[in-house]
Specification:
- The chain contains 11 helices and 13 strands.
- The chain is an alpha+beta fold.
- A 7-stranded mixed β-sheet has the order 8-10-7-11-9-12-13, sandwiched between helices. Strands 3-6-4-5 form a 4-stranded mixed β-sheet, with helices on one face. A two-stranded antiparallel sheet has the order 1-2.
- A hairpin with a 7-residue loop joins strand 1 and strand 2.
- The longest helix is centred in the middle third of the chain and has 18 residues.
- The structure holds adenosine-5'-diphosphate and magnesium ion.
- The site of adenosine-5'-diphosphate has 14 residues, from helix 1, strand 4 and strand 5.
Length: about 350
């Protein structure tokens, strides 16, 4: 929003007035939405499909910094991170509810800016905003999103189904969001030190978009369905490849071996990692916020998976006793535990 735009305090129109304003961002698109915003509760009809539910809480100062996060992007991202969890079950999202804690520094216009992003995400992913809540807050902005989706019985993919010899696959590329965040933090410091300085963001467009405007991988789920591959396990990468792979291994009671040289990292991420003196693989393993999908499939699907768009095989599931291993580019094996990773990090300083 531009500085000189007139702003309206929420107290001027009240909570109900604000809800009425926000309704324009919640056009109902899905047949499953029987009752949306406006009653005590929403009603959805998923017929004989199973319902998948997930929720996430985003706190200002913990999960986002409004100095460099435009409200529209924040609204978009708040929805996307939830949809990513629904897709990670191989389910289809249908609806969200969204609750807000708002301190008095947020005007009606600011909230509407947030909702423009929410509406954009809902429209792109074809989900309905069917309800929410608003409360005053003493500590800035809080956004809580609950997403609902559907899946046919027996078709949901859990973290616990990986089997020995399965292929470990990831979508897209990893580590860029973390590096985008480092750039934003650096430019924030420059700005705070000298408010005349303009941030240098244009040449870092790709990695900054990865942190500010992530997408959920609906396309990967749809590709897998199209070629009739039911993954044995799946998880979305919100905390970094290392920790997500650990979840799959622990819950599936298996081990794994992945190869550093196979881990996809975007060339812009590699360049930025070098500038920050961080190993690009460290960003991919531990950076997080990529919202890519990590999944395992039976090895008989190798040819089909290799033909899939934007999917890479990075390793194999092994017996639990073989441990969880990362093979470095030079051929050394490291344990995928915090401790093992430390030793890898020692030669690849991470400056955070
Ligand atoms: P209640 O008193 O039952 O909490 P509200 O007055 O808070 O009801 O909400 C009225 C309607 O507006 C409900 O359908 C609710 O789901 C919806 N709603 C409230 N806040 C939001 C929001 N931030 N975004 C979307 N819908 C909302
Ligand atoms: Mg309420």
């Amino acid at each position: 929003m531009s500085e000189n735009q007139k702003t309206t305090e929420i107290s001027e129109i009240g909570e109900f007035g604000l809800i009425t304003e926000l309704c324009q961002f919640a056009r109902q698109k899905n047949k499953s939405t029987i009752t949306g915003i406006g009653d005590d509760a929403a009603i959805i009809n998923h017929g004989n499909l199973q319902t998948v539910v997930t929720t996430d809480l985003l706190m200002e100062g913990i999960h986002f910094d409004l100095i460099y996060t435009p409200l529209m992007h924040l609204g978009y991202k708040a929805v996307v991170v939830n949809l990513s969890d629904i897709y990670a079950m191989m389910a289809k999202p249908t609806s969200i509810t969204l609750s807000l804690g708002l301190s008095s520094r947020f005007s009606v216009e600011a909230v509407k800016e947030l909702y423009k992003g929410i509406e954009k995400a809902c429209s792109f992913y074809e989900v309905d905003l069917i309800g929410g809540d608003i409360s005053a807050s003493l500590t800035g902005l809080t956004i809580s999103v609950t997403a609902l989706g559907t899946v046919e019985e027996g078709k949901a993919v859990h973290r616990s189904g990986a089997k020995v010899d399965d292929l470990i696959c990831v979508s897209g590329d990893l580590g860029a969001a973390y590096l985008g965040l480092q750039i934003l933090e650096r430019e924030k410091q420059v700005y705070l030190d000298n408010k005349e300085m303009q941030p240098e963001l244009e040449q870092n467009k790709y990695i900054i978009e990865r942190i500010l405007k992530p997408e959920a991988r609906r396309d990967i789920v749809e590709q897998l369905q199209k070629v009739n591959i039911q993954p044995t396990s799946m998880i979305d990468i919100s905390d970094g490849l290392s920790s997500e792979l650990m979840h799959i291994c622990v819950q599936s009671q298996v081990g794994c071996k992945i190869y550093d040289e196979n881990i996809p990292v975007h060339k812009d991420a590699i360049e930025t990692a070098i500038i920050f003196n961080i190993d690009p693989s460290t960003c991919a393993m531990n950076g997080g916020e990529d919202y890519e999908l990590l999944f395992t499939v039976s090895k008989e699907h190798l040819d089909v998976i290799e033909d899939m768009f934007d999917v890479r095989v990075i390793g194999k599931i092994s017996e639990k006793e073989a441990g969880k291993k990362l093979v470095s580019k030079s051929g050394n094996e490291y344990d995928l535990t915090a401790q093992g990773w430390q030793s890898f990090k020692a030669t690849n300083q991470k400056d955070t």
